[in-house]
Amino acid sequence: METQNCIGGRWQAARDGREFDVRNPADDSLVARVADGGAADARLAADAAAQALPAWKARTARERCLVLKKWQALVERDVERLAALISREQGKPLAESRGEIAYSNAYIEWFAEEGVRAYGEVIPTPAASKRLMVVREAVGVVAVVTPWNFPAAMIARKIAPALAAGCTVVAKPAEDTPLTALALVKLAEEAGVPPGVLNIIPASRERTPEVVGEWLADGRVRKISFTGSTPVGKLLARESAATLKKLSLELGGNAAFIVFEDADIPAAVEGLMAAKFRNGGQTCVSPNRVYVHDSVHDRFVDKLAARVGALRVGPATWPQAEIGPMINARAVEKIERHVADAVARGAKVVVGGQRVRSDVANGPNYYAPTVLTGATREMALSGEETFGPVVPVFRFATEEEVVGEANDTPYGLAGYFFSNDVRRIWRVASALETGLVGINEGAIAAPAAPFGGVKESGYGREGSHWGLDEYLHTKYLCQGNLA
């Protein structure tokens, strides 16, 4: 288990020797003490990345592809060890952790192969004496800042395209879950990523601003890729303006899930289960508001309540666990606040609605999967992302009404709807103001597809060839005097 900074190919303690604790959310036990990086460490990492950039950028796309393929093979070799590490520091059930490693590796594989297809262009010439061409080049040093909910997938989805494009990287993983990211960087090093090409600085919540602030001020860092809250994303956008960095911001969400009267109700229930309860609801694309047509409301709620009530809550060490602990006490307190506010404003608890304490789930951070009916827009959970296993069900009567409600938010990451009317499908898909739309489907992410939002959910895309484009800039070449 790596617990130190990796700078220029050397694993080392923070310059001032500080460390912070990483704890298991299942029981609050200590997992490890990790180097607490500061501004001096961040500066050294940027120095190493800038020094390594010319040689890595000069390698052919095929050479970089082969290194990434070796990284992919090593991750596949160590899937059980990495999955166990995710479950210890993040809390999700082991089956989900294995799935996350497979998902992460799919991004490494995709970008290893997509990097060799960063094509340029030949432009028809306006004169016989000239040749006009466009080439794509690495943007330079990239700063990557990742969240805690998918500690492997977010690192892979950002670092793999950066390396494939020829960029070098400085990374700051989430303070709650740095160990998985450090382990992946160690495997990348074993795969042959040269010293200085990939550098990682873990930091506590208190020291994160000085680490990221150092990279924001450094003109050599030409791009920042961040997944996290909208307020932090806005801060990064403001602070990066001084050096006009390229930004990819995947920010907050408030996803609507709509069930129309012509939907396949059993399929809609299963789609919601897949979209909502992965990672215990701690997912940026997790449905936060569920709208069900009046005519099918009761039937849908009955089937949903039966499925949700059967979910088993426990730690990753319990083989039957389907919902693990929330990441920390703050997360549970927010869920409790949202449920209490909803009930005070007239919502009814159909299933769940409280913390879980049992012989198996005996830690402080477990919350029961919950279904609420009678949800209204006045409730806090209508406007704020709950980020937990709570399903508030809203009623609606018309398509126009529900589309308006779904779009009545500053966020626009994901949206979902279930309908068997082909004309409605195209109307609603066009009308939803989101970057991602699930149509009769709850699991929508894929390495070949672009992932990202609109409005205050950010800009830029991850995955697909658009995700590679985020790490490239366009250079125009004009050669004259050829005739």
TrEMBL record:
Record-annotated active site: 250
A GO BP entry: gamma-aminobutyric acid catabolic process
The Aldehyde dehydrogenase domain, residue ranges: 11-476
Keywords (A to Z) from UniProt: Oxidoreductase
UniProt-listed Pfam families: Aldedh
Family: Belongs to the aldehyde dehydrogenase family.
Protein known as: NAD-dependent succinate-semialdehyde dehydrogenase
Species assigned in the record: Ramlibacter henchirensis
